[in-house]
Design brief:
Keywords: Amino-acid biosynthesis, Arginine biosynthesis, ATP-binding, Glutamine amidotransferase, Ligase, Nucleotide-binding, Pyrimidine biosynthesis. The active site is at 262 (nucleophile), 354, 356. L-glutamine binds at residues 52, 234, 236, 263, 266, 304, 306-307. The chain has 386 residues and is of the alpha/beta class. The protein has two domains: 4-156, 3-Layer(bba) Sandwich (Glucose Oxidase, domain 1); 166-385, Class I glutamine amidotransferase (GATase) domain (Rossmann fold). The chain is 24% helix and 32% strand. The protein has helices at residues 44-48, 103-109, 120-130, 147-156, 166-169, 196-204, 218-222, 242-253, 263-271, 366-385; strands spanning 9-14, 19-26, 30-38, 56-60, 64-65, 84-86, 89-90, 113-116, 133-139, 175-177, 185-190, 207-212, 226-231, 258-261, 275-292, 298-310, 316-318, 325-332, 338-343, 348-351. Strands 10, 11, 12, 13, 14, 15, 16, 17, 18, 19 and 20 form an eleven-stranded mixed beta sheet that branches. α8 packs across α9.
Length: 386
């Protein structure tokens, strides 16, 4: 870890020309991506290993990061996925008996270029005003590039709108996790960037979890003999995922129960015939208030999304794609964004947030039980009609 007396310069450059000078953190070099902020006070290791952050430079609004180090038990996936990392005050001391290495060392090991020592509040306020935008972190030799050259590199980086990143984060071959307790059946999970806690939640409820590559066809999905299909969270623009929408429409036509989270919610929206749009600066963190319209209960939830479904908040409406009646099931209380969908004539629902929430909170964990109830009800109806 770099000492206070030997800190190397680094700079964060945004595409509108804003510059923030700080110190190198993690790996040295250049990284480019969409700069977004996460408001979670804890769970930085879960954030870093969330595949939904692929292609993004993540800023932590909490000022002190790295206090508990990192370990091999808490990662949500096989690696750190963020393109870059921005913190204000990285801890110089690791204060947890569970720590196996420092966060700084982990970032360097996985080649993640970061920056520390900048006014993260100022950057957050800038993004909240101007919207999420492309940016770059430059350290090492890259810190010596001219301001004009650094800005040129940022301007040449791909925009998140129109970007399909599913193939970068998905498994290459199917992976199976056995069911725990009383077995319900197989669930086919389309891996668009799934987190380990999601797999564990499904397995604990009696599903044998078949995590399939994002390129899976309807024949490959049905070959698993699924009692249900699940679409995971993931990075990218849902408008750029036509193949996943077509697959999901085929699943719905087969009458297989469906549950989707985060990216999966956006894809259910598209499969039902709805549109999606990019939020100004997104929802990222573990303190987002959402109202479940079915119960009236307000939940504090874990979010990581920059896109949302365009649908009427109140009332029941007909699916433009012909799947019957639909309603918005959950609403974000900060900005009235659609946070969940429920089909009324077919067994399908989704939420825009992360009910597994390994870093907390666990208000929304009941959604996995709601999924079980839907699947068992569908099985019972099929057996009664057999």
């Amino acid at each position: 870890m770099t000492s206070l007396l030997d800190r190397e310069p680094a700079v964060l450059v945004l595409e509108d020309g804003a510059r923030f000078a700080g110190y190198a953190y993690g790996a040295r070099g250049t990284t480019l991506g969409e700069v977004v902020f996460s408001t979670g006070m804890t769970g930085y290791q879960e954030t870093l290993t969330d595949p939904s952050y692929a292609g993004q430079i993540v800023l932590q609004t909490a000022p002190h990061i790295g206090n508990t180090g990192v370990n091999t038990e808490d990662p949500e996936s096989r690696r750190i996925w963020v393109s870059g990392y921005i913190v204000r005050d990285p801890s110089r001391v690791v204060s947890s008996w569970r720590a196996e290495e420092t966060l700084d060392d982990a970032l360097e090991r996985d080649g993640v270029v970061g920056i520390s020592g900048i006014d993260t509040r100022a950057v957050t306020r800038h993004i909240r005003s101007a919207g999420s935008m492309r940016g770059g972190v430059f350290s090492g030799e890259a810190a010596g590039l001219t301001a004009e050259e650094q800005l040129r590199l940022v301007a040449e980086a791909p925009e998140m709108t129109g970007l399909n990143l599913s193939a970068e984060v998905s498994v290459a071959v199917a992976e199976v996790t056995p069911a725990q307790g009383e077995r319900i059946g197989n669930v086919a999970v389309i891996d668009l960037g799934i987190k380990q806690a999601t797999v564990e939640n499904l397995a604990r409820r009696g599903f044998e979890v078949h995590v399939l590559p994002q390129s899976a066809t309807i024949d490959e999905v049905l070959a698993v003999s699924p009692v249900a299909v699940f679409y995971s969270n993931g990075p990218g623009d849902p408008a750029a995922s036509d193949a996943h929408v077509e697959l999901l429409q085929n699943v719905l036509r087969e009458g297989v129960p469906f549950f989707g989270i985060c990216f999966g919610n956006q894809l259910l929206g598209r499969a039902l015939g709805l549109g999606t749009y990019k939020l100004p600066f997104g929802h990222r963190g573990i303190n987002q208030p959402v109202r479940d319209k079915l119960t009236g209960r307000v939940e504090i939830t874990a979010h990581n999304h920059g896109f949302a479904v365009d649908a009427p908040i109140e009332g029941v409406f007909e699916s433009p794609a012909g799947f019957g009646r639909v309603e918005v099931s959950h609403v974000g209380l900060n900005d009235d964004v659609v946070e969940g969908l429920r089909a009324l004539d077919i067994p399908a629902f989704s939420v825009q947030y992360h009910p597994e929430a390994a870093g907390g909170p666990h208000d929304a964990n009941y959604l996995f039980d709601r999924f079980v109830d839907m699947v068992q009800d569908t099985i019972s109806k099929k057996e009664a009609n057999a």
